Design the sequence.
């Protein structure tokens, strides 16, 4: 895996699986995991473009952006899990479609 295209192919597969999961899943936890896949795909893109850009070997811009993405994903997971727990407490389900139609 020494070329940019191989990293971009893996990233596009991760991104596509994440989009597919967000669109098709009804469980809120599965949707959260799919969003994490999308964020990981973008982090992989940042690191790959930083590694293969010819701007200098000592620049760490892609890695710094990826650290910010990881921090954002952790904060997003904490908030989303709190919302999911509240959803379960109020509607007795974590299925987003059922919770949307239960109590209006």
Sequence:
């Amino acid at each position: 895996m020494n070329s940019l295209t191989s990293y971009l192919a893996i990233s596009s597969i991760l991104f596509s699986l994440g989009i597919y999961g967000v669109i098709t899943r009804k469980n809120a936890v599965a949707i959260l995991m799919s969003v994490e896949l999308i964020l990981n795909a973008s982090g992989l893109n940042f690191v790959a473009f930083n590694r293969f850009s010819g701007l200098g070997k000592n620049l760490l811009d892609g890695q710094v952006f990826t650290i910010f993405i990881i921090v954002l994903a952790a904060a997003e997971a904490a908030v989303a899990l709190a919302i999911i727990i509240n959803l379960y407490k109020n509607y007795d389900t974590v299925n987003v479609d059922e919770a949307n139609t239960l109590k209006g």
In short: Residues 4-102 form a domain with the Helix Hairpins fold (CATH 1.10.287.3510). The CA atoms of residues 47 and 62 lie 5 Å apart. The chain has a mean pLDDT of 88. The longest helix spans residues 61-91.
